[in-house]
Amino acid sequence: MASKQPPNKRRRQVETCINCRSSRKQCDKGNPCRNCLENNRKCLYAKEFPYSHVSREEQAAILERLLYETRGKFNLLKNYVEKNAIKDWESQVVMASTKRHMSRNIRLEADMYNYMRRYTASWLVQVSTPDQPEWRVQDKVFKTIFSRNGFIINLMGNLPKETIPPVPRMLENTDHFSIDIARAMVSVEEVEMMIALYNDCYSFSALPDFISPHFENNGDYDLLLSSVMTLMLSHCVNLHAMKVDNHQVLSHAFYFHTKQLRDARVANGIDIMTLHATFNLMLYEAENGYLQQCAMSRQYMAIMIDMLHAHYGNMSVWQQNLLRHLFWAIFTADAGSHNMQMQEHVLCAPYMHVHKQRPSDQSLQVVDKLKEEYIYFRCRLAENIREIWKGCYGVEAPSVDGAQVKTLEEGMWELYRELPSWIKSEDPLDKIAIETCEGYECFCGQPNQHSRTHPICHRSLVEVWMRRLRYHFLVEWHGTWLFLYQIFLPKPGDVVQLPFIRCMEHGKLMVDAMERWADDPDFFDCYCYPSLRSLLVASHVHRYLLGSEIPEVRQKGYQLLHQLYGIIRRSNIYHMYKNTEFILGMKATFHSIHRDYIQPNDMGQHSMDISTAAANTKDADLHMFSAAAS
């Protein structure tokens, strides 16, 4: 005989009306009850919370939305009373009664406000991976208007200044050091290595294999080679630990030689080669802190871009494709700086449509397919950054429509869903056979797939580009989320809102991706370095978390900042920027954390253990982390 199922237990309904409960009077449970009828009051009964069947996270989201609606209604009522300035006796009585109820409701609201902040923070510190339900819960609480944070706007305007060394650097002409001597001091092997590194591995170059001796017939090879040598002589030494004697003097000699060749060529007309050479010079000036010359090169580039755009229709197909690649390379460099200096009419031209950058189906090797995918996804990301810049930063209004923010967020998720599955998976890259993954089956069984190697670490370029897509691109993707939502961060201590949640989520995931990248010692720093602007934005968001009144959030900000700075210390980028406001500001933050934030009564025992190392030394960052990788 089947056993009977126990009947479902129903919660006991509250049978006392709200007025009788607040005045502590006995209620006869009528409708209306006797007390409310005698006092001419509306008789209301409390109902059971209708959302008890959903999860705690969804309850928090619903309560947050109801709280926003309640506060909005309260402000409307308050403004109405103040505007009408009611003075008659009966209205005064109503106002006194309303004020009494409002005071009680405000106290209840304050208690709920405090509870929600702490409750939401308690489960937010355990961040999940993308596409999990926790990421979608907060979609239900989009506000109608997102108020912009004025402090963040000013901070974004000063981002380039944080990478400027204390002493401005100037480029001086070296007439005493001829270009012939400079060429003689660089061996043929070093030249070939730098060309290979530029063609295959340079982060900002969204171009195919471009530097080739067959350009020598047109006089282009000398110009392009000189600009590449200018850029790569310092780039290889600073970021790839490649030993080149007197590289700074050599790069200066090639720099001024390139300018002479370019100016002589511009006198006969502007072409693609002069723009490409100027782009390389501008990257060299920006990397090495020559800001005055960098601004001048950017002005030259703006004129060249405008003129080449006007003559686009008269170019051959090969030249048009090359020009499009070059324009996208310049634009992605701007997007990486969150600078957006590319002319709007050029970006909106039909030939600049981002889908024209899609990977070709006729790639001969896996490495070519991976490189083209990386270029395409970076162009897609740059386009998303441009939309964020226009919609959130480039507007005069103090707030942004929530529906517009939702559209920008959907664009980011659309890009994420288009990524190959092996990029988003948690499987170790050493265990992934790329030829067996979806979209790469055509390369299975082809000979000489891994013949090309990295010129510095001598690893397969297939492995290098797989790691660039897995680590470097995902770090920039999460950094773009921070760029989107940091401008809407509330004041420290306000209720936990969607921008705060998004910054917490993506800040954590971005640092985790960088840590997995840094734990891959054979590839970390051998081909590209973390996106500097993403690091700057992440450090600002993590420092913002330290201003929270919630101990759990402060502790999470402290952990993320320690984790982020530890990764920077292990990378060669640290030696380029260790004397700038960026690094010095992070050091000062660690000292202020120990002095102002770490309190025994606020933090648990786990927090005190984490801060012990910082307490044992005056320079905590030097004690905690090892030197940068060579």
UniProtKB/TrEMBL annotation:
Q: Which organism is it from?
A: Circinella minor
* Protein localization: Nucleus
One Pfam family cited in the UniProt record for this chain: Zn_clus
Q: What is this protein called?
A: Zn(2)-C6 fungal-type domain-containing protein
InterPro entries, from UniProt? Answer: Sec_Metabolite_Reg (IPR050613), Zn2-C6_fun-type_DNA-bd_sf (IPR036864), Zn2Cys6_DnaBD (IPR001138)
Q: Which SUPFAM superfamilies match?
A: Zn2/Cys6 DNA-binding domain (SSF57701)
Q: Example GO molecular function term?
A: zinc ion binding
Principal location listed in the UniProt entry = nucleus
PANTHER family xrefs: CENTROMERE DNA-BINDING PROTEIN COMPLEX CBF3 SUBUNIT B (PTHR31001:SF90), UNCHARACTERIZED TRANSCRIPTIONAL REGULATORY PROTEIN (PTHR31001)
